[in-house]
Amino acid sequence: MNSRERILAAINHQPVDRIPTDIWATPEVTQKLKEHFGEGVDYFSKLHIDGMSGVGPDYIGPALPVMPEGEGIDIWGMKTRKAEHAGGTYNEQCFYPLSEATCMDDIVKYKWPSADWFDYSKMKEKAKELRKTKVVTCGYMAPFYFHNKLRGLEQSFVDLMAEQELAHEIIRRVSDFFYEHHKKMFEACDGLIDISQVTDDLGSQTGPMISLDTYTEFYAPQHRRLIKLCKDYGIKVFHHDDGSNRIFLPMLVEMGIDILNPVQWTCPDMDMVGLKKEFGKKVCFHGAVENQRILPFGTPEEVRAEVRHCIDSLAGDKTGYILAPCHNLQGITPVENILAMYDEAWNYGKMK
What we know:
Helices cover 43% and strands 16% of the residues. It is α/β, with parallel strands linked by helices.
């Protein structure tokens, strides 16, 4: 099997020759791996990483403001500033463009992005080339997360109780843009897209961020609409959802998600064996290798044991799992632990 065949088989719960693998990593980790293997060496090949490849359109919309060094701005007017962390740098959001909105008129006046700001004409050829060996991904739709990013996390939660009309309007407009933008991408690629993300961070380290009732009223209708858009184009749905999100999974699975990431099994109600038993016939799991304690601070042998733990728990039927870290590998992660993770997946994950 090549990487494309292996990942698609796992997603479709079909036999695989070995458990497929993927990688999410910060730029600092990518640089460390390049330095470890040497200039020009394909570390994906050296580590037997199957991976996925993405396509997207070119931006041709209104010119974005020139920002001071170390700061950035996107099409939504969300501003970021570089912040140093242990082992690297992150672009942290520092401005929320609708944080001061108090009435519907403020929402209407905001300059909402448009699908017409993009040129989709070059996507098909790139997707066609990638598809020869790789699973092709396209898009990212996250109504809850973008509500947070437009209003600020605290205010977006207040909206759900005290500013419900504004909340519904913001979430609808965000989702309208996602829908039109992704429809144009899917049409441009003419059946060549395998996976798209309808995703959101509904869980925290200790439990859900919002109640199931709140989710059902405000966000579920948009998730359902965006998942259906993917299904209409024959595209599998990847759902990223950090933390303890177990309460939302029956509804999300019923809506049609195909892949669940990151499976943060150390959080409440996220036992891997239980998740596999309840949802494993319909959902392929992605991620799971513990990335807060074991990968950055464990020994290589502890990492190998964790890989075996994840494969045994999520691939007991020998399919339906794509092994990867449960979030970006951080800059403090020793290269030796990364090598151990993929070497153990290569050896232990082979189907007998």
